[in-house]
Amino acid sequence: MTDTPILTQLAALATGSMPSEVIDGIPARIIDIVGIAVRASTLDTSRSIVGFSTDQGTAPQSTAIGASVKMSAAEAAFVNGVLAHSLDYDDTHLPSILHPSASVVPAALAAAEWVDASGTALLEAVTAGLEITVRLGMGGYDPVGRQSVYFERGQHATSICGAIGSAAAVARLLGGSAEVVQDAMGIACSMASGIIEANRAGGTVKRLHCGWAARSGVSAAQLAVRGITGPPTAIEGRFGLFQAFLGDQGRVSATLDRLGENWEAAGIFYKPYPANHFTHTGIDAAIALRNRGLAVADISTATLEVAPPTVRTIGDPIAAKRRPDTGYQAQFSGPYTVIAGFLGGGGLGVGLADFTDALAIDPRRRDLMAKVDVVGSETFLDIYPYQFPARLTVQTTDGHQLVEEVLTNRGGSHRPLSSEELAAKFNDNVDGLLSPDAADRLATSLADLASVGSVSDVLSPLCLVSALDEGTSS
Questions:
Q1: pTM (2 decimals)?
Q2: How far out from the chain centre does Cα 169 lie?
Q3: Given this model, what pLDDT does residue 472 score?
Q4: What angle do CA 352, 357, 359 make, to 5 degrees?
């Protein structure tokens, strides 16, 4: 246990200088999240959220994607955070297994627009917020059990840790001192929440989690600059967040290890496919078998082997995973995503068009999903959760066996997405929702944030999203 409170050390990090090598990677993360949020504006749940937030009648401070009017910074952060997480396309930190950018980026964008911050100030704030989010996530990672303790207890580390990281980012943007940033995070500890039963049993509430975290971060920072204070030991104290959420399994050492020297934010994984990250190597394996000439008509049975802790998310209960009712449920289905790998072709191999409600209940796909089993393999525990490895074994109708093993995820340091692939993902997300000219202006401005004097000017193309036809839900 450290003598200096964790929040004090995190606040010092948040108000200090950020390394240029980490900041250089932040514009691409902002572009990624903005593109995802634009595409998610077409969802029925997104329209519900925009309507809900519009009804709050808040001050016109910041842009909420899909809304016809500006909202308060907190409400805009809520809307954009919901949208950023609604497609399960947002980035992931490993091994904490949380999605940091979907709360921190919306919170920081809303605050930066409100206070008319510079692009550099935004980049620095996002860097700080991401690092704090993943550091708190690492505090809940059990290296022996190779699992997030938050996850084991049914808690969504993404929204819990994201609320605190978002508070730090916004407090920095509001010009708060280290003490104010510390208070903002301490306040956010009392606002952090989220359970993940929806991953297993359905429901759309999980889409709201990053919105709640972003809104909590903005609100906590606004309260802190007005003099509301939080407990300095809100993380490690006897009644602090670690004890409340993790019991005796919170790891202060992991949160603080080489803080300010080793930047976890630099290694966050991008998602190439709009589905639960546990499914991605299975998709890759299916695509590889398809490229080797295997047709779905030749599949007799297929077995997807994954790390045992992931089975309950993508393979349990197997009857339900073989018969998802919606495109959203399909994103958490090992059988569905394997079949999507064989049949899909959108995006970077499998895209948003492969996860519609109609395809989830398509009789042909259901017949194919019935042939796919999902099992745990202990051999993968040496890699998990630094990667989400998979092995796909197919018995063909003519008696042959084909095996494809994928040990590392696309989008991470072992198999990074190129700048061209990230651009393709963004363009696919905004296609039909922003004109080519507006999309190009937005991406170019965000890529060059370091030279932008006013974030408000950069975000102006997003106001055009709400003027388009509402379309249909994805």
A1: 0.94
A2: 17
A3: 35
A4: 75
